[in-house]
Amino acid sequence: MPTDRRTEQALIELYAGTLVDGLSAEGGMEAVIAGRRQLDRIIEYHYSNVELGEFADDPTYSPEQRSQVVRTVLEGSQPALVSVVGIMAERREFGNLTKVRSRFNQKVVEKLNTSIVDVTTRVPLDDHLREVIKNKAASELGTDIVLDEHVDETMLGGIIMKANGKRIDASMNTMLSRARSVLKEN
Fold first, then answer.
1. Cβ atoms 158, 143 nearer than 8 A
2. pLDDT in tens, 69-127
3. Residue 55 burial (CB < 10 Å; 0-12/13-18/19+)?
4. Are 150 and 120 in contact (CB under 8 A)?
5. When you count CB atoms within 10 A of the terminal residue's CB, does the N or C end of the chain come out lower?
6. Is residue 103 a contact partner of residue 20, using CB atoms and an 8 Å limit?
7. Which of 173, 172, 148 is nearest to 161 (CA)?
8. pTM of the complete model beyond 0.70
């Protein structure tokens, strides 16, 4: 469904706001984080699976068929997420998922005064480090902080943090990569 830029922005705003409100009502911040993770997986799958993208934008399928397939695939996901993504598929707006995800993060800050900080480490955080990160992020961002922790066993060590469009990469992998680049230049 082609739309002009203002209409597209208004729809992205509506979808993101509806997601934050719906997820929050379903189960507070835990549901917001779970829905956010599920949305990330949907986006990853959408970009890695050409058939899904083609299906979601194929005008030969009825809006009801597109919506039903997406709702079936997402069965077991957060209900608010299933509903919003189903409507997007129905209206052939699946291509806006990444924009909705980006605006979703901003809406969490605006509506819930909370920044979700993605923290990736090689091993799980201990309570002390978790508190240090939360306190530092709260002073930097001026909001409440919720950590969304990820363990990546392929990391050599260090930490990667992302929040509100900012990224801090203090991982050993990145440091070694930079050192390699410097050595190659010399």
1. no
2. 888 888 899 999 999 999 998 998 888 999 999 999 999 999 999 999 999 999 999 99
3. middle
4. yes
5. C
6. no
7. 148
8. yes
